[in-house]
Structure formats: structure tokens, C-alpha cells
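User: Can you recover a sequence for this backbone? Please restate the input before giving your answer.

Assistant: Of course. Working from this structure:
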């Protein structure tokens, strides 16, 4: 264009991706400069047609080329910032990211080789079965899961007895149970759901720690789901009461909802939802929050389903392999420094464990929250697939906890945090209460299977509160994000080592007084 001659070099030399740059810079895919076309396109715009400026019949082509080469020879500098200075506005670090990935792969390949040379192949799928079953004729964990149906049924029949019908004439037909008695039964049922598996795990000798984690995990999920089920049905009854009062006052007929002149798709309404089918759909759906009418996807996409299934199987094998080959030997080798209280070796072992632990946690995240949950959701045509958000960009600890596990966070908000805020509890106290509850369940899922009460998981969860305050107060942006990553990478192996050390001391030290060889 015309002004290219006045400040030509500034525009001409801009070859890199610069965010927020006002001018238009044309660039070929191979990165070569192409600044002539702007002028040529304008010059060739004729009767709405664009002529190719590079075509041999373009009259100005030769002249322009000559002019440019002279211009290039005369001036070769322009006012510009170095790419790595923040004032340059440069933001394309894709190459650096690739470099990080290459470095990561190379350094881990070395570790992988070192591990193989040192230990040989430790992966043993048969051993995985023994983690779930001590005695092939005794299957306590699956039996415990089957028994959980009794509690699910108890919740359903309690709700049926509590249900309220709206009769013609806007009279409410009360259920056979009063609200107070229903509440008592639900509390009894929910407490039994938490206590019954604990008693079983502690009393049945053939229960393995892994089997116990599985059974307690299922019971915890049932507890959270039935709590939500009770809450939502109670809200429905409250709405019925409010509606009956309004309708009986106005004596008007309830209008049939219509959308664009056509009847709305049939929706379940209270108490029509109190059926076995509805409750079991909720029990298997990948959510902890009950709803009368869940959003549904229109069909099952078979290719999507198969992809998720493949991922599930692949990542499960990978997880088991990495734990057996990488994590277990590293943990075993960490016992001696911990027993000797050799601080520098302890830190070295902790950092060594941090790498496989973090990798396994990331794979677990993808396997559980993306592959498995999407698989179940697709199979059940469950529409809401928001199982996680962009927690990896967390700049604060609270952002991480509100975004990495959406089903739990949603439950906490809907059934615990917001009800507390509504009752006038301060925000800080409500957040502390949520973390206390979460800490309780973390400890519940670790201490009881290990039959060892140490409170490391509880303290780890509670430590999130001061950590959240510190990061929120003193660190911003990338520093905050780095702090969240460091807390994840270092925090988890500390808890793992604490539990394994205590478990080892409790169960194995008497049988082998020397402990495992320190490598
Ligand atoms: C404690 C916790 C619930 C706080 O979540 P948060 O999103 O940071 O909380 P906020 O204070 O920002 O508010 C959340 C919601 O409450 C609402 N809210 C805030 N103050 C309110 C008030 N006084 N009255 C009513 N609602 C209020 C907000 O509007 C917001 O609603 P929205 O979600 O519809 O937008 C969250 O950190 C959490 O879930 N922690 C535990 C997670 C956990 O243990 N996970 C285990 C994974 S293994």
C-alpha cells in the first residue's frame, strides 16, 4: 500500500505471530514472507474480480519486484522488540512446548530403561487378581456391593411412604409417614450405609485392602446419591405444598406447558419418579446429584462408545503396569531412609516417587473422568458430560478443587455448601465444613481398608485451606498455577509414603527386621 514506502520496514519485517498486532501481515504456511499481494490485490480489484498479482500478465509485477529488491538493499533494520521480551507481544511458544514434550519423553525413556535393567519385568496380571481376592472361595467385596441394594430399596420405600399427592380440588393427600419420621429413617439408612461396610471390612479376614477400597468407594457413592435423592424429593414435596396453597387460593386450573404451540415432551413429575427404574437409572448414571428429568442424549454413538471402551481397557492396563513396574519398587526402596530418618535421602526418595505417582495420577484422571464416565454416560444416554473443567489452568487452589472433580463439587455445592450459606453460615466457615467433609471421606477410604488410623489423608485435605489462602494471597497468574502443580506433584507422594511406611512398619517389620535392601 501507499504507506509501505513511509514505514515499510516495520511492516515488512514482521514475520512472527504477534498477538494484538494491528496491521495485516500475510504469511505463507512455510513461514516465507509475502508482502506484495496486498498492493497487488487492491490494484487488481476490477469489477468485483480479483486478478492474481503473481500472474505473468500482471503489468506491475516486474516493476514492483525491481522496486522491492532496491528497497531491501537500502534498508534492513526496523524498530522492533526482541521476541522474548514481553513488550514484543509474541505469544507463540508451540515449539517450546514440543521441546518440553521431547525432553520429557527422552528423560523418561532413560528412567524406563534404567528401571528395566535394575528390576527386570515386574508386571504380573495374575498378581492383580490376588489384590482383590485373598481366598478364591470368599468374595466379600462383591457380596458387600450386592447387599447395598437393601439400602437403596430402603430409601425408595421411605420416599414412597413420604410422598404427597395433589388431588382434584387442590387437596394434598399426605403420605403415611410424617416428615420427621421419614427424616429419622433416612438418617438411620444413611448412617448404616457408612457403618455397615466398615464393620464388614474390619471383621472379615478374607477382605483385601484393594477389595475394601472398591466396596467402600461404592458405598460412599451410594451414600452421596441417596442423600441427594432424599433432598430432591423433599424439595418436590415442599413445592407441592406451596403449589397447593397457591392453587387453592386462586382456584385456577394448572396450565399445560406448551412450547411453540406443540405439547412439551413428556416429563416425569413428583411422585411419578418414585419407581425402581428411575432410582436405578440414577444409581448407575455418572452423577451424584439427583434430578427428576436428567438431560438425555438423543442416541448412542457406537464409534464414540467403542473409542471410550478401548481407552478404558488400554489405560487400565497401563496403570497396572506402571504401578507394578515403577511405583512399587520406588516405594519399597524408600522405606529404609524413612525408618532411619535420613532427611536428605527421604527428600531424594520423595522426589523420585513424585514422577511415577504424578504420571499415574494424570492417567487415572483421564481414564476415570474422561474415558470411563463418558462410556457409562453414552451407554445410558446421559446428556450432561461435564465431568471436569480446565483444572490444569488453576491459578488458585480453590479453582482446582472446584474444577477437577465436577460430580463431587456439584454435590458439595448443591447439598452442603449452598444450604449452609442459606442458613446464614459465613462463606469461610461453609468452605471449611466442605473440606472437613471431604477430608473425612478421604480418610474413610484409606484408613479403613488399611485397618490403620493415621489421619494423613485427612490432614492432607485440611491443609488445602491454609494452602488456598497462601496461594490466593501471595501468588498470581503463572506463579499461582505453578504452586497448584507443585502441591499436586509433591503433596500426593508425601501422603502415599506416610501410609506405606506405617503399613510396612505395622505388618512387615516384625517378619523381616532388616527391612528391604536400599537401592
Ligand atoms: C468449597 C467449595 C464448594 C467452594 O466452591 P467455590 O466454587 O469456590 O464456591 P463459591 O463461593 O465461589 O460459590 C459457589 C456457588 O455458590 C454461590 N454462592 C456464593 N455465595 C452465596 C451465598 N451467600 N448465597 C447463595 N449462594 C452463594 C455462588 O453464586 C456460586 O454459584 P454457582 O455455582 O451457581 O455460580 C469447593 O471448593 C469444593 O467443592 N471443595 C471440595 C471439593 C472436594 O473435596 N472434592 C473432592 C474431590 S476428590
Amino acid at each position: 500500500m501507499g504507506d509501505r514506502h513511509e514505514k515499510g520496514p516495520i511492516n515488512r519485517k514482521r514475520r512472527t505471530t504477534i498477538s494484538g498486532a494491528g496491521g495485516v501481515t500475510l504469511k505463507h504456511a512455510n513461514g516465507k514472507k509475502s508482502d506484495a499481494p496486498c498492493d497487488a490485490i487492491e490494484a487488481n480489484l476490477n469489477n468485483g474480480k480479483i486478478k492474481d498479482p503473481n500472474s505473468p500478465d500482471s503489468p506491475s509485477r516486474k516493476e514492483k519486484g525491481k522496486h522491492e529488491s532496491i528497497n531491501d538493499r537500502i534498508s534492513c533494520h526496523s524498530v522492533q522488540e526482541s521476541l522474548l521480551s514481553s513488550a514484543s507481544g509474541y505469544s507463540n511458544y508451540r515449539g517450546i512446548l514440543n521441546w518440553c514434550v521431547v525432553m520429557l519423553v527422552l528423560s523418561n525413556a532413560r528412567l524406563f530403561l534404567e528401571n528395566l535393567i535394575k528390576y527386570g519385568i515386574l508386571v504380573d496380571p495374575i498378581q492383580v487378581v490376588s489384590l482383590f481376592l485373598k481366598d478364591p472361595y470368599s468374595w466379600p467385596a462383591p457380596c458387600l456391593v450386592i447387599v447395598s441394594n437393601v439400602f437403596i430399596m430402603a430409601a425408595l420405600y421411605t420416599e414412597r411412604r413420604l410422598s404427597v399427592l395433589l388431588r382434584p380440588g387442590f387437596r394434598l393427600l399426605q403420605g403415611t409417614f410424617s416428615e420427621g419420621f421419614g427424616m429419622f429413617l433416612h438418617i438411620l439408612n444413611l448412617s448404616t450405609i457408612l457403618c455397615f461396610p466398615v464393620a464388614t471390612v474390619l471383621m472379615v479376614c478374607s477382605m483385601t485392602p484393594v477389595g475394601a477400597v472398591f466396596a467402600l468407594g461404592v458405598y460412599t457413592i451410594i451414600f452421596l446419591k441417596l442423600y441427594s435423592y432424599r433432598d430432591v424429593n423433599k424439595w418436590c414435596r415442599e413445592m407441592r405444598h406451596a403449589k397447593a396453597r397457591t392453587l387453592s387460593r386462586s382456584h385456577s386450573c394448572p396450565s399445560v406447558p406448551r412450547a411453540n404451540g406443540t405439547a412439551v415432551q413428556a416429563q416425569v413429575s413428583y411422585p411419578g419418579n418414585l419407581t425402581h427404574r428411575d432410582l436405578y437409572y440414577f444409581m448407575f448414571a455418572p452423577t451424584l446429584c439427583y434430578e427428576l428429568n436428567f438431560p438425555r442424549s438423543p442416541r448412542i454413538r457406537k464409534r464414540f462408545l467403542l473409542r471410550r471402551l478401548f481407552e478404558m481397557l488400554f489405560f487400565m492396563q497401563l496403570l497396572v503396569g506402571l504401578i507394578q513396574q515403577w511405583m512399587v519398587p520406588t516405594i519399597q526402596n524408600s522405606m529404609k531412609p524413612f525408618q532411619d530418618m535420613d532427611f536428605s535421602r527421604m527428600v531424594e526418595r520423595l522426589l523420585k516417587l513424585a514422577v511415577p505417582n504424578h504420571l499415574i495420577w494424570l492417567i487415572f484422571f483421564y481414564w476415570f473422568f474422561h474415558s470411563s464416565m463418558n462410556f457409562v454416560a453414552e451407554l445410558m444416554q446421559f446428556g450432561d458430560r461435564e465431568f471436569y473443567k480446565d483444572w490444569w489452568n488453576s491459578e488458585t487452589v480453590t479453582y482446582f478443587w472446584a474444577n477437577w472433580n465436577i460430580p463431587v463439587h456439584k454435590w458439595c455445592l448443591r447439598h452442603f455448601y449452598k444450604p449452609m450459606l442459606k442458613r446464614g453460615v459465613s462463606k469461610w466457615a461453609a468452605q471449611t465444613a466442605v473440606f472437613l467433609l471431604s477430608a473425612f471421606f478421604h480418610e474413610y477410604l484409606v484408613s479403613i481398608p488399611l485397618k490403620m488410623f493415621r489421619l494423613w489423608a485427612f490432614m492432607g485435605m485440611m491443609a488445602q485451606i491454609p494452602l488456598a489462602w497462601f496461594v490466593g494471597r501471595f501468588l498470581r497468574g503463572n506463579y499461582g498455577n505453578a504452586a497448584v502443580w507443585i502441591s499436586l506433584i509433591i503433596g500426593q507422594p508425601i501422603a502415599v509414603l506416610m501410609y506405606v511406611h506405617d503399613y510396612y512398619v505395622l505388618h512387615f517389620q516384625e517378619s523381616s527386621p532388616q527391612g528391604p535392601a536400599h537401592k
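That completes the design. The longest helix spans residues 209-250.
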